[in-house]
From TrEMBL:
Key words, A-Z: Iron, Iron-sulfur, Metal-binding
Name of this protein: Anaerobic selenocysteine-containing dehydrogenase
SUPFAM superfamilies: ADC-like, Formate dehydrogenase/DMSO reductase, domains 1-3
Alphabetical list of PROSITE patterns matching this protein: 4FE4S_MOW_BIS_MGD
UniProt organism field: Aliirhizobium cellulosilyticum
InterPro entries: Asp_de-COase-like_dom_sf, MoPterin_dinucl-bd_dom, Mopterin_OxRdtase, Mopterin_OxRdtase_4Fe-4S_dom, Prok_Mopterin_Oxidored, YoaE_C
Length: 710
């Protein structure tokens, strides 16, 4: 399926030339892009590549408008040093050499006073490019700085999936187009990964397939559904258990398949005897009829494709919920059929060897690992968050915006305001985090540097070559890491002193995928395994080939396993033996009668695109969606200012009355910058950073709150 035109291909005579690259943003789709290039070296229109069989010519509107972002007048262009108090917004320009010298000097002083762990390189997925994102790890390992434990995105979903399958891979996501029923569960795909809808809608048009959407409110994906399943937040596992109960009860369960491929189907069936539709109805808020109809549809449709999303990674019982939803496909035997099975992420299939890029040879297991989600606790001296060691007094931040996206925002802000904390931020815009820095460095955008990408939501390894020259005063992430390595005395370590193309070449060759020039000629590599491997026809990823209905939550496989020095996290002893609803979510009480989810919006991507005019115009303003009956009871009308709060803090938002969620459920779509809110504080004031079982995570959709008219 690797049908590609050369990267050097030109468009029709009279048109601009066309460059080929890949979207770098934090999204499972990693869309292949065709970019119009003008004669004066600028970009024009950005389109999805029609040659790529997953992107299939379709991209989201925000990336299609990328020229608005790359040429934004507010883009950072020169290094800046803070003047005056932190966060006051007073800056002075300085040279790149002076800025890098000051950063290195601050790191050397921090290490001299408190040891190497006082420095914390903090990064995430602002770019998904392997070189520009992960080179910071090489510097960290070489210098023995504190480790970074990424917990905001994948932990619960990946762990729950792999605990069942034994591997992070699944059916070819393009098979959705060959399905007779596509279940989109836990992802607002229209807003966050539009290509899922491309293939699902193709199945509906060509095969008459039904699209089922399982989510917590009537979002844009729900509006595309043939069957809408709107349940209470954090109750997905209860629904999954009832579906499996009905499958066993009514003969939809494929007993022959389970006998060959599952660990304990008899134990599961006995466990599910009491997990009736009536039981699930009380937990989920769905009617018994809705549950029965859904079970009948998937039970009588062999080619059912369960597309399981990252919503499972946003709730405290998300690991168990993902595993329960995944188990439905195994009870039904859906894996056997083209267009059937369950898919979440293809991370395992790419096999990219990044050991030199990341400097893993210098890794010291004794160095502490700090939790990304708990940056507020780390910076305010919480001894547990600090692993009972010394303080963090210096930060290097790339590709993320914790002053906006991290939970427990009041603690985060308190930490960043410390007089003894030095912060360097490498960014494209003056984000909430950059505003708190001592030194801000301007960063390139993806069209201005070379990088290599892999797509978790599909099956391609893709090349993102440099298409246009960056402004002369901005620099790549790799440049910053290389220059700091020179100043910090580790530049002679293997892996330093290489440019992007050399790193890409080494990764591809060490991984058995050819070379940079090979990938440049083809644009991408289709890494999808054969049908039998993808559908586990030869057995699941465990040594005995059996799917685990009853996983070992602590010792079983997980890509997000915490290091031994940290161990299991959260209420891991409460995880169930078999799929079940686990009541570890923030349930409502008399003081907090509402459940709040901080769901993604269509025009922003995490905190990216929140600076572009068209995205702001489309989103309007920060609002909280309220179910009309709740609003009437509280005397709230559309547009009122309301106050939301819990033990972590309180914020004010405008109310928007929206039917389509369960009563008692509030939705705040974002992610808006803090200063876009009425009081300068964003929605993550209300979210918690307590670790999720068994290996951590940020349950940002799992919050109990009160609400009153302001």
């Amino acid at each position: 399926m690797n049908i590609a035109t050369p990267i050097s291909a030109k468009s029709k005579p009279g048109h601009n030339s066309v460059g080929h690259t890949v979207c770098p943003h934090d999204c499972p789709s990693a869309c292949a892009l065709d970019v119009d290039l003008t004669e004066d070296g600028r970009i024009g229109r950005v389109r999805g590549s029609s040659d790529n069989t997953y992107t299939a010519g379709v991209i989201c509107a925000k990336v299609a408008r990328y020229s608005e972002r790359i040429y934004h007048p507010g883009r950072l262009m020169v290094p800046q040093r803070r003047k005056g108090a932190k966060g006051d917004g007073n800056w002075q320009e300085l040279s790149w050499q002076a800025a890098l010298d000051e950063i290195a000097d601050a790191f050397i002083k921090a290490e001299a006073k408190h040891g190497s762990e006082a420095v914390w390189p903090y990064f995430y997925a602002g770019t998904m490019g392997q070189v520009q994102r992960d080179s910071i790890e090489r510097l960290r390992h070489a210098k023995k700085y504190s480790g970074f434990m990424g917990t905001i995105c994948t932990n619960m979903a990946w762990t729950g999936y792999v605990m069942g399958t034994g591997a992070l891979r699944g059916p070819d996501p393009r098979e959705m187009a060959k399905s007779d029923c596509v279940v989109i569960w836990g992802t607002n795909a229209v807003a966050t990964q539009i290509n899922v809808m491309t293939h699902a809608i193709k199945a509906r048009k060509e095969r008459g397939a039904k699209i089922v959407v399982v989510d917590i409110y009537d979002n844009p994906t729900m509006k595309q559904a043939d069957v809408k399943i709107v349940l209470r937040p954090g109750t997905d596992a209860a629904l999954a258990c009832a579906l499996m109960h009905i499958a066993f009860r009514d003969g939809y369960a494929d007993r022959e398949y389970m006998a060959k491929y599952a660990d304990d189907p008899a134990g599961l069936e006995a466990h599910l005897k009491s997990r009736t539709p009536q039981w699930a109805s009380e937990i989920t808020g769905l009617s018994v009829e809705e549950i029965e109809d859904f079970a009948r549809l998937i039970g009588t449709t062999k080619k059912t494709f369960f597309r399981l999303g990252y919503g499972f990674s946003r709730q405290r019982n998300g690991t168990a919920a993902m595993h329960a939803a995944l188990s439905v496909a195994t009870v039904l035997g859906s894996w056997q059929y083209e267009g059937g099975g369950a898919f979440h992420n293809n991370g395992e299939i790419f096999r990219l060897n990044k050991s030199e890029l990341m400097g893993t040879a210098y890794m010291d297991p004794e160095i502490r690992m700090l939790d990304q989600s708990q940056i507020g606790r780390v910076l305010t001296g919480d001894p547990v968050a600090l692993r009972h060691r010394g303080p963090v007094t210096a930060l290097l931040i790339q590709n993320t915006n914790p002053m906006n996206i991290a939970p427990e925002q009041r603690l985060v802000k308190q930490g960043f305001l410390r007089d003894d904390l030095f912060t360097a931020v490498h960014e494209q815009f003056m984000t909430d985090t950059a505003k708190m820095a001592d030194i801000v460095l301007p960063a390139t955008m993806f069209l201005e540097h070379d990088d290599l990408y892999r797509a978790g939501g599909q099956q391609h390894i893709l090349l993102g070559p440099k298409l246009v020259e960056p402004p002369s005063t901005v620099r790549t992430n790799l440049f910053v890491i290389e220059e700091l390595a020179k100043r910090l005395g580790v530049y002679h370590f293997a892996g330093f002193g290489k440019d992007e193309r050399s790193h890409i070449d080494r990764i591809l060759e060490d991984s058995g995928w050819g070379s940079y020039e090979d990938l440049k000629a083809d644009k991408w590599i289709d890494a999808q395994p054969d049908f039998d491997t993808a559908h586990y026809i030869n057995g699941f990823g465990y040594p005995d080939g059996k799917f685990r209905f009853s996983p070992d939550w602590i010792n079983g496989p997980s890509p997000d396993r915490t290091p031994d020095s940290v161990g299991p996290l959260g209420p891991h002893t409460e995880l169930p033996r078999f799929p079940d609803h686990v009541a570890v979510i923030e349930t409502v009480d008399a003081e907090h009668p509402f459940r709040l989810a901080t769901s993604p919006s269509r025009s922003f991507l995490n905190s990216s695109f929140a600076e572009t005019k068209s995205s702001i115009q489309k989103e309007g303003r920060p609002e909280v969606m309220i179910e009309p009956t709740d609003a009437e009871r509280l005397g709230v009308v559309d547009g009122d200012i309301v106050c939301l709060g819990n033990l972590r803090g309180e914020i004010r938002l405008h109310a928007r009355l929206v039917p389509g969620a369960k009563p008692g459920v509030l939705i705040a779509e974002g992610l808006w910058p803090n200063d876009a809110h009425l009081d300068g504080e964003g929605i993550n004031v209300l979210t918690g950073a307590d670790p999720v079982a068994p290996f951590g995570g940020a349950a940002v959709h799992d919050n109990k709150v009160w609400l009153r008219k302001s």
